[in-house]
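Re: weekly structure request thread

Next one in the queue (168 aa):
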Amino acid sequence: MDGFRVLLVISMALLGIEPAMAARTGDFGGLAICSRLHAMPRGYRPIECNSGTPLAGDCRFLLMSQGVPVEYLIEYGVVVDKRVRLRAGSHKAGPFGIVRDEGRTSAARKIQASTGLSARYWADSEVEDAGYLQSTEVSCSRNSSYTIYVWFRHGGAESVSVSTLPAM
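Done, posted below.
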């Protein structure tokens, strides 16, 4: 790599600009994070929604994507969070190739390989032996960004989410 490219990569890192690859591959499921819905998708199953006007206010629902149930949260029609609960078995790989009970180092490597994003582990201060990997942020609109999370319990991955919301 020539000197200019090295300087460019370092400058981008210092400015907090994530790789373009992350914007294209840091998402999963049928509905894109940060997208605005004009109608509820066909086949959705409400979990917690205003039955008359699900696009007005908050709505949590399930929608199948390639045979896998994805839980979505929309706020006023905008997709702000989605989560996949990981299933057991290597043939049941979830987003980014992560499988249930996978370790955090391996999961972080898979996020890096799939998206170019680095991730940091945070221990849950309220739940013993629980925590999450949090990727660096990716811009999805002029004033919004999303983060990839992998949620762990007893050292193994349980679910993967993409969210514009802070970790809870």
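The first helix runs from residue 3 to 15. Residues 120 and 133 are 5 Å apart (CA to CA).
Next request, please.
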